[in-house]
Amino acid sequence: MTYSLKARFRIYYITAMFSLLFSVAGFSYNAWRMEVSEANNNISTAAFEALTGLAAIQQLIYAAIFDD
What we know:
This protein is mainly α. It has one domain (1-68). It is built from 1 helix and no strands. It has one helix at residues 5-66. It is rod-shaped and about 95 Å long.
């Protein structure tokens, strides 16, 4: 099967457009996923910091009530 030069260029053009579209879609998904992961990490860190603060307050309250 021999393709004409015009047919070959058309196949190359379609392949290049598909590759470009696929790479842009992959990059977009990766960027979105990283943003979501960063937001989850920030929330997790803030929650642990809040729990650490609450634990310190709890120790102070127990010391004030039970230790004379």
